[in-house]
Input
Amino acid sequence: METVRFFYPKLRPFVTLGFSPLINQSSSAAFPSGHATFLFVLVTVIFFMERKWFWYFLSAAVLNAVARVYVGVHWPTDIIAGITLGVGVTFLIQRFLVPRSD
Output
């Protein structure tokens, strides 16, 4: 994730638009959202392991993603990239590194 930020240092909305965010946040690069990446990795792992809890964790992750945009610390594209990165990497790990029991 830090590699993406190195090559694509996208400013946060409150820096670009010149307002104070609703929560304290450094003005470091925003793309992709680390919170969204982590939470959607967690949601995807729960999907594979315990589907009973999946909808609860998905709801919490989506709520967090919307909140990060609402408080002004991420653009929607930062969140979408974080979700894509988190789910994509977890699916790749599941596909290629987790042994199958046939």
User: Anything to note?
Assistant: The CA atoms of residues 44 and 91 lie 8 Å apart. Helices lie at 2-7, 13-17, 34-49, 51-70, 76-96. Residues 52-102 form one domain. The chain has a mean pLDDT of 81.
